[in-house]
Amino acid sequence: REPDIFIQNYKVTFNEFMKHLNELSISQYETEPLHKMQSWNDFKKCWNLPIYYQYRFQEIGICAENVMNNESYELCNDETFKLKVTKTVWDCMNSCLDPNIFIVQLSHRFFKFILQLISRYQTWAKDANVKSKTELNDFSTRITFLEDLESDLKIFYFKLNDIYLMFEQLLCTKVPVDILELQKSCILDINLNSLINDINKCKLQSVTDEVMSYVIRVTDVPRLFRHTNRDYPREPCAYMKSIVTTLKTLQNKICQKQVLDHIVTQ
Q1: Which residues form a coiled coil (predicted)?
Q2: H runs (alpha helix) in the chain
C-alpha cells in the first residue's frame, strides 16, 4: 500500500541515509551543518507529510466509524475488553503510535487524532446507552450490554495513561519537556466517571422497573387464594421466580442489593 511504502522510504531516507550524511558533514567541515542548510529544508518539503497523514487518518478513522455505526452491540474475543467497539477504538489509538505508522514530525496531528477518537468513543457510548432501550428488545441482552459497556469504559479510562506513556516513549528526546507535560495533562484531564455513572444508573433503573412490574402482582396473592380455596403455597409464586431471574441479569452483587433495597422501600 502507498502509505506503507511512503513511511518505509521516508525512514530509510531520514533515519539512515540523511542522518549519516548529516553526521559526515559535521565531522568533515566546520561550516554550517547540512541539516541547517536551505537545500536540506527544500528536500524535506518534497516529502508531503500532510498527505501521508490524511491517508492514515482516513484509514484508521473509517475503521473505527464502521464498527461504531454497524456493530455497536457486538462482543469481541479479547482478554481486556468485552465489546468490539471498545477494542477497535483502542486498537486505532495504538495504531496512531505504531512505529510503522507514526512520524515524529506529525506527532501533534496524531496526538490530536487520538483525542478525537476518545471523544468519538464517548459520544458513541452515550448514544448506545440511549438507543439500546429501543434496539435491544430482549431485557437480559440489554442489561448484559450495559454491564459490558460500563466495564469497558472503566478499563478504557484506566488504560489511558498507557497511551501517554507510549507517546512519551516515542518523543522523550525529540520534543521539549513542557510539550510532553501539556500532552500528559490533556490525556489525564479526560474524565469518563460521569458517563460511567449515567450508564450504571440507567442499568439499575431498567432492572428496578422490570422487577417492580412483578412486585405489583403481590397484591393478587390474597385474592387468588381466598376466592379459589387453593391449598397454601408450597413453593415460591411465579412472580418471585421472575424477580430472582431478573436480578440475576446483574453480575454485580452490590447492584443487586441496590435494586432490592429500592423494592423494599416502595
Answers
A1: none
A2: 2-11, 18-28, 38-45, 49-70, 84-96, 107-135, 139-171, 177-188, 193-215, 220-228, 238-247, 253-265
